Amino acid sequence: MSNAGGFVLVASFMSMFLAQFAKVVFVRIRQKSWQWHQFTNSGGMPSSHSSLMTTLTVCMWLLFGWKSPWFAIAFVSSVVVMYDAIGVRRQAGEQAMILDELMSQIHDAGVEIDLSVFDRFRHWKRQGHTPREVAGGIVVGIVVAFVAYKFF
After folding, report:
1. What whole-number distance in Å separates Cα of residue 49 and Cα of residue 96?
2. Residue 49 and residue 83: Cα distance in Å, rounded?
3. What values do phi and psi take at 42, rounded to 5?
4. DSSP states of 79-110 as a string?
5. How much is the pLDDT for 2?
6. Is-contact 12 149, C-beta < 8 A?
7. What's the rounded Cα separation, in Å, for the pair 80 and 73?
8. From CA 44, how far away is CA 90, in angstroms rounded?
9. pLDDT tens across 63-95, in order?
């Protein structure tokens, strides 16, 4: 394959795009309405970060073998991204939800506070992934990598 770099790049971003689109479809199925803003959300099922990194890793394996340094770098990077999605980013999202609830309770108790200060934290509530969402991203990533490798 003469254009391996281009193949890997296109396949990886195609995987991320498909995972993001799948979020819209899953929300449509669950909530019976199109919510196109889900396409730009960083949380939810499946994890597009995991999908992108899995496609990158599988492509490196298919192109260069599992003993190559390219596969090793992609694999280790993928583990870090997925660990971060489940751990640090998810914790930040949970803390943002708690902070939002706490501020609402303080406001409801009659304390004068400007809740708009906390609007910037609202997007943090959608951060991070459950292990199931990461697994969904891994499945999408594997499928896209093999399909792309076979047809491109």
Report:
1. 21
2. 11
3. -95, -10
4. HHHHHHHHTHHHHHHHHHHHHHHHHHHHHHTT
5. 57
6. no
7. 11
8. 11
9. 999 999 999 999 999 999 998 888 776 666 677
